[in-house]
């Protein structure tokens, strides 16, 4: 970040100095100004590319950490938070450990989840209950009846 700030200050000083010399007649010709602009564009492009590559590297590291945390979070307390939708277009929001997952009726795995033996698989959504299965262990989670009439 410090490198980017230093580069931006240098760029600003270069622009100001080129503007002041351009205002004075006879100091520099058009071709030297064009070359300066090309050089600035090249430096700006190189800096943007470097910044994007660094951000992608951080993103990859973050994805690896999230995948590992996702595998760890597949165990823990199960809680059905909500069921949304109408008819066959139902979504169930389930908290597994510390993470919240969204299951769609007709899709076995939670949204964004990869198939793995340690993940909970949706068996079905019926009424106010969700049926999940992991390996050979089945779980039925239901909404608390007191939550229905308060709205």
State the CATH topology of the largest domain.
Answer: SH3 type barrels
Q: Portion of residues in helices?
A: 40-55%
Sketch the topology as an H/E string, one letter per element: HHEEEEEE
CATH architecture of the largest domain: Roll
Rg for CA atoms: 28 Å
Instruction: Report, as a whole number of angstroms, the end-to-end distance.
Output: 49 Å
Tell me the quaternary state: single chain
Strand content: 25-35%
In round numbers, the mean pLDDT is 76
Query: Which structural class do you get from the secondary structure elements?
Result: alpha+beta
Number of strands: 6
Low-confidence stretches: none
Question: What's the level 1 CATH class of the largest domain?
Answer: Mainly Beta
The global form is: elongated
Number of helices: 2
Largest sheet: 3 strands, antiparallel
Task: Please give the domain count.
Answer: 2
Taking strands numbered 1, 2, ... along the chain, how are they ordered across the largest sheet? 1-2-3
């Amino acid at each position: 970040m410090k490198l980017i700030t230093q580069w931006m200050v240098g760029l600003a000083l270069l622009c100001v100095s080129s503007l002041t010399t351009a205002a004075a007649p006879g100091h520099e010709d058009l071709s030297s100004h064009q070359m300066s602009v090309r050089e600035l564009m090249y430096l700006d492009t190189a800096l943007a590319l470097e910044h994007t590559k660094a951000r992608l590297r951080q993103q990859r590291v973050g994805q690896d950490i999230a995948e590992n945390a996702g595998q760890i979070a597949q165990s823990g307390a199960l809680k059905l938070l909500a069921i949304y939708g109408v008819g066959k277009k139902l979504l169930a929001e389930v908290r597994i450990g510390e993470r919240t997952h969204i299951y769609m009726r007709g899709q076995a795995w939670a949204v964004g989840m990869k198939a793995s033996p340690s993940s909970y698989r949706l068996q079905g959504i019926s009424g106010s209950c969700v049926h999940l299965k992991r390996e050979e262990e089945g779980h039925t989670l239901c909404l608390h009846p007191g939550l229905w009439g308060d709205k």
